[in-house]
Amino acid sequence: xxxxxxxxxxxxxxxxxxxxxxxxxxxxxxxxxxxxxxxxxxxxxxxxxxxxxxxxxxxxxxxxxxxxxxxxxxxxxxxxxxxxxxxxxxxxxxxxxxxxxxxxxxxxxxxxxxxxxxxxxxxxxxxxxxxxxxxxxxxxxxxxxxxxxxxxxxxxxxxxxxxxxxxxxxxxxxxxxxxxxxxxxxxxxxxxxxxxxxxxxxxxxxxxxxxxxxxxxxxxxxxxxxxxxxxxxxxxxxxxxxxxxxxxxxxxxxxxxxxxxxxxxxxxxxxxxxxxxxxxxxxxxxxxxxxxxxxxxxxxxxxxxxxxxxxxxxxxxxxxxxxxxxxxxxxxxxxxxxxxxx
Length: 342
Description:
The protein is mainly beta and 342 residues long. Helices cover 13% and strands 34% of the residues. The protein has three domains: 21-94 and 110-114; 122-228, no CATH class; 250-340, FlgT, C-terminal domain (Thrombin, subunit H). The strands form four sheets. Strands 4, 5, 6, 7, 8, 9 and 10 form a seven-stranded antiparallel sheet that branches. A six-stranded antiparallel barrel has the order 11-12-17-16-13-18. A three-stranded antiparallel sheet has the order 1-2-3, with no helix packed on it. A hairpin with a 4-residue loop joins strand 14 (292-295) and strand 15 (300-303). The two termini are 45 Å apart. The relative contact order is 0.12. Mean pLDDT is 78; it is low at 1-22 and 96-110.
């Protein structure tokens, strides 16, 4: 009988331990209540409660007061409850909402976002990763008006190549850095550097077409490429989450601005894309190589374990590569640091 009781006790301990492995890891200093302030983000609020803030959807999972947890406002009060042994956040509205039989436009910019687009939005307007075939086969600038190129809006340039369809608006790009996989050497694409915009004036079927420059960031040059403007649908905010699939052989292969030490707020290029099932909002952990040291006692080289150095979030995904924003870094991170699921 005593043996059976001990067996049952050990079984219950194992079950509790297994459940604990799946439980949300609540911070020791998590507040019981919190009043939302202007400038807060869901990511920041979740970080006050969770050691792993990318699991924030689970913190809000059973919250009948919030039909859309992405829409909370300054003045709302959050309070911590426990449901089936799991922590959950619930909400008390900090203001009354009166309904009237008339059309009303809500100021959604007052809602608390997950991660705002202050840095990401402008970046996406100026950067693109282009497949090598698409870049090499695109139309290009063959000449400027009166034999020279100026950099003011209103100037005319001439393009040559295959202008597809009836598209009239084009971006002017200059081929930049070639991105290659550090393990296989595969060409992942080229950084298309933004030079400006132009509007097609003549027929796209002409051998040489005429375009009007509408915007420039620097002087247009012969051989600059002309790419149709993309309709890039960008969500108002990004809602970070862990990837649904394992991430293997991922590296940071480039950084915007070419800095040597990377920290929070920097934008990096990853050697992973749509084909690796990466999607906007996926959060990845950054790991640094532990390196090799000489063990003087054993008189042999020994490899140190890799060190977790930070977090990043993917916000734009191409076929073979992606852009990501560094969210957190406990130390300066570098190109060729490894990334994997957090």
